[in-house]
Amino acid sequence: MQTITVGTYIALVKAIYDFIESISWQFVMLIKNFISNKLYLKDITEFSKLEKVENILNPIDTSVKQTVIQKIEFKNVTFVYPNTTKKILDNFTATMYGDKKYSIVGANGCGKTTLVKLLTGLYEDYDGDILINGVEIRDIKKEQLKAYFGIVYQDFSKYEISIKDNLLIEDPKSQQALDVLKQLGLDELIGNLENGLDTPLGKLDNNGIDLSGGQWQKIAIARTLISGSPINILDEPTHSLDPISEVNLYAMFKSIMNEKFTIFITHRLGGAKLADEIIVINKGKVAQQGTHQNLLNLGGQYAKMFEAQRSWYDEN
Predict the structure, then answer these.
(1) Centroid of chain to Cα 105
(2) pTM for this model (two decimals)
(3) How far apart are CA 141 and CA 4, in angstroms?
(4) pLDDT in tens, 137-196
(5) Hey, which residues does 104 pair with through a beta bridge?
(6) At what angle do helices 175-183 and 213-227 cross, to 10 degrees?
(7) How crowded is residue 302: how many other Cβ atoms within 10 Å of its Cβ?
(8) How many angstroms separate the CA atoms of 167 and 218, rounded?
(9) Which of 22, 83, 118, 287 has its CA 20 to 30 A from that of 62?
């Protein structure tokens, strides 16, 4: 019988152990990649099943940006997301007038962001009517409807292209663009860059710079404000900002909202006070509507939410 030394035995055991460990990790990574690719394939499959929407890629009708928005109406709107049964909006009815600014508030999942998605035409299979200046939005051309809105979603997109292209600035010397950049504090950032507005953002370009979450959000907000659309929709526009930037942004909104039809969706009710009217949504319906002070005096859902937030800052 052949024998081996203790050292050889230990070396063999370690080699076998390392081999098994290596195979195990490779197997784990293989399974991980398989699951990940399967999820991508699911998205691609679902995308391929979507119905083709005619003229969706037509250029935006810029003449629409001169339109004066007099009224937006939701009439008995009920909506259920595809492949679900829960009513996100349930016989929702509200009217917004062009000479007022609105905040929409409510608990998570009450239908605030869904309301925006329907208004901007992302979903059309709802019951009831949504009208802009008396016209049902499903009867408005896609390129025209898109031009009505400048939107900042809370899950805003990060476009890894130049700052200029990100902001869709045609004229870098535009006073409107310069004012917005200054109000958002982006002028200093851009001024310190060697290539200024032509600086690429993100890591796709070797010369690109990466931004913080708050800076990316400011870029998204600037893009909306510079667009010149007649309706601005701001969905949780300050959730990535530090407290000082948030206060400055609220102050800027106050001046901007005097000139635009603005719908402001927020969980932070201190910002909701900027609006002429606040719409409180609960379970897909309008629970309350009125000014900040009137809603506090009523002592309903809005007052409870406001007091709950204020209590965090009030030591007494």
Answers:
(1) 15
(2) 0.73
(3) 83
(4) 999 988 888 888 888 877 777 888 888 888 876 666 777 788 888 877 888 888 888 888
(5) 265, 279
(6) 150
(7) 24
(8) 10
(9) 118
